[in-house]
Structures are given as C-alpha cells and as structure tokens.
Amino acid sequence: MKVVIVLAICALTAVAAVPIPEDQRVNGENGWYIPKVDGSSYWVSTEEGEQMLADLEKKEEMEGRILPVPVTFYLYTNKNPSKGQKITETAKSINNSDFDANNPTRFVIHGWTQSYTAGMNKDIRAAWLGRGKYNVIIVDWARARSVEYASSVVAVPKAGQKVASMINYLVEKHGMSLETTEVIGHSLGAHVAGFAGKNTKNGLLHAIVGLDPALPLFSYNKPNKRLNSNDAQYVESIQTNGGGLGFLKPIGKGAFYPNGGKSQPGCPLDVTGACSHARSCAYYAESVARDDFPSMRCGDYQEAVKDKCGSSYSGVKMGAVTNAYMVAGDFYVPVHSSAPYGFGA
Ligand SMILES: *[C@@H]1O[C@H](CO)[C@@H](O)[C@H](O)[C@H]1NC(C)=O
Fold first, then answer.
1. Measured in whole angstroms, how far is the alpha carbon of residue 288 from the centre of its chain?
2. What's residue 345's pLDDT?
3. Digit-coded pLDDT (tens) for 151-175
4. Which tens digits make up the pLDDT trace of 194-222?
5. What are 326-337's pLDDT values in tens digits?
6. pLDDT at 5 > cutoff 80
7. Does the annotation count 123 as an active-site position?
8. What whole-number distance in Å separates Cα of residue 195 and Cα of residue 303?
9. Which of 219, 260, 303, 326 lies 20 to 30 Å from 242 when distance is taken between CA atoms?
10. Of residues 140, 212, 231, 291, which has the active-site annotation?
11. Residue 103 C-alpha to ligand 1 middle, in angstroms?
12. How far apart are CA 151 and CA 148, in angstroms?
C-alpha cells in the first residue's frame, strides 16, 4: 500500500513539473521570460505564469482596499509645452487648465518601471505639439513601478479603466471628441491603452498606437486580456523587439516591423532587448515629427520578419496619421541605425 502511494505521488509530481528544456522554450508560446528590474529574466511555463497572475489577482481582491491603482494625468498644450498641468475629473480642474476640446487630444502611457517623466513622453509630446495645437495628456500609472513585473501586469486592466474614465469624462462634460482622440502606449502601457479603448462609452477611440506591446505574461490567443485590433477604430502596432520584450505576432490592424521586428540596428549586444524595445518610441516620435518611414507590404508577418516583402515601397508610412482611414496588414520597415531612422519621405 505504502509503495503504491509513494509511486502515485511520484507520478503526480512528475506530471506537474515536466520542465520545458531550454532549447524548446519559445517566449510567448509555451511560457515567458519574465523581466526583472536588474535587466535579467527568468523562465516560467505558461501554466506557472498564469498561476502567478491568478494568485496575484486573488491576493489583490482580498487586499482590494489597500492596493489602489493610482493614475495621474498631466496636460501639455502649445501654451504649456514643457510644464504639465495636473488634471483631475472635475469641472474646476479642467476649466482651470489649458485643455481645449476644439483641438485633437493624445494620451501617452509609459511602460514598466517608468513614469510620466520618461524620455519617450517628452519626445512624443514635443513631436505632436510641433505639428500644431493639441492636448497632450501624459498618463502616470504608479503601479508600473512595482518591483515585480507580474504585479504591474495585474494592475493593467484597472489602470486602463481609469484612463477610460478620464476619456469618458472629457467627452461627456467637456466636449472632447473620440473621433479626434488617440491613445499611444509603450510596452505594458500599450496594454493599458487597450483597456482604455475597451472601456470607452459612446463609441470607440479614433486610434490606438501600441509601441512594442509587452509580451511577457500576455497571450496572443487571449485578445480580451491584451491590446487587440478591435480596441479602437484603428489600432497600429510598431513591433521592435518581437519575441523578446514585445510581441512578434501582429497586434495592430496595421502591424509594422522595423528591421523585421525582432531587433534594431544600432542596438549591439542588446542582450536584454531594452534598446530595441525602446526604439519603437523613438521611431514613433520621429514618424509624428517627420512622417519619414516608408514601408513594404508583406503577405503575412512571417514575411515581414524574414525581410521577404520585396523592395518596392507600399505607399503606406509607419505612424502616418492617415493610416487610420485605410491601412490593414503587415509591413516591413527599413530603418537606419541612428536618427533620423526612417528612410525618408
Ligand atoms: C466650467 O466651465 C463651464 C463652461 O464654461 C461652466 O458651465 C461651468 O460652470 C464651469 N465650472 C466650474 C466649476 O468652474
């Protein structure tokens, strides 16, 4: 009897813990490499990763009242291009700010470990304000700064709901139009943007731009739990560290693959992927400022990854504002190793 029980326990543990050999691990397919603050990462299987999220969600539910998801908004306009005005969902706050519903609005959402002072925010903000009159609202979500990546992932849906709440308030009480509102998010912030889009009332956002949407602990086949192509009238993705920190499979209705989407020129020894991952922001800011990223149209994303999309330009430019009206498909984008990155007008 004892032997049988021992054997049974052995069999159970063997089934539960069959590890995936290192050479068979495919990030995002049978598990994830989860980033750590020191730049290193560790592997978890899909089951382990999902269990990790489920445990954290349960813990948060129980501690709900002491684990808020604070989200703060800083408005920049052509009147205050470099010093943000903190705005809240009150008439007094919005009336006292330089928000002008006659101008288009852009929300920008940072990724893990970052804040509203992140360099990408400055670059993207400067690019839009350089084009004309805009309300640029930089989002700060404090839970992005959890030491544990998974803890930030768990906060993504609620952070997105808070962004949606501000959007709905500005639409309902201050005349902002969803038709002229776009949300831009980098990495984990791209998924926050997705949840903002899922929660708008009275219609869809005009566009969401996902800058190398984060891959660790997100699944391609669970689109309701990540940024997906239905979260706005048009969703564009700029994928620069695919299969590493970002998705390789196409996220946007228009999915753009600079240099094939996995790694970027000018990022040598990019072991962590951080350099290639951040390039998505630099490319986007440049595209807003210069509209200089011509692309080749591909049959599918695998062709884009392999740079097998021919040599003739498609007429579609990565990040172009008109994309929202006409673009669908996967695109290869040639890039230079230093700024200006695009191949030109
Ligand atoms: C804000 O502005 C609107 C429109 O100008 C006005 O109707 C409202 O009373 C103002 N509210 C506050 C609290 O200042």
1. 17
2. 63
3. 999 999 999 999 999 999 999 999 9
4. 999 999 999 999 999 999 999 999 999 99
5. 999 999 999 999
6. no
7. no
8. 30
9. 326
10. 212
11. 18
12. 5
> How many helices and strands in the chain, by DSSP H and E?
9, 12
DSSP 146: -
Phi and psi, residue 59, nearest 5°: -60, -45
95 lines ligand 1 (CB under 6 A): yes
Q: How far is the CA of 92 from the centre of ligand 1 (A)?
A: 7
Q: What is the CATH code of the structural domain delimited by 69-333?
A: 3.40.50.1820
| Helix, strand or coil, per DSSP, at residue 87 | strand
Does 191 participate in catalysis according to the annotation? no
Q: Is the backbone of residue 278 left (phi > 0), alpha (psi -120 to 50) or beta?
A: alpha
Please choose, from the candidates 204, 79, 194, 96, the residue with its C-alpha nearest in 3D space to the C-alpha of residue 134.
79
E strand map for the chain? 31-35, 41-45, 71-76, 85-87, 105-109, 135-141, 181-186, 207-211, 234-238, 254-258, 296-298, 329-333
212 is catalytic: yes
pTM as predicted: 0.94
Distance CA(282)–CA(289), nearest Å, equals: 11
The residue to mutate among 95, 102, 172, 174, having the most atoms of ligand 1 within 8 angstroms of its beta carbon, is: 95
Nearest CA to ligand 1 atom 8: 91
- Ligand 1, residue 90: give the atom nearest the CA: 13
Domain spans of the chain? Answer: 69-333
> pLDDT grade, residue 137 (50/70/90)?
very high
CB atoms within 10 A of CB 159: 27
**Structure token pair of residue 140:** 């700060």
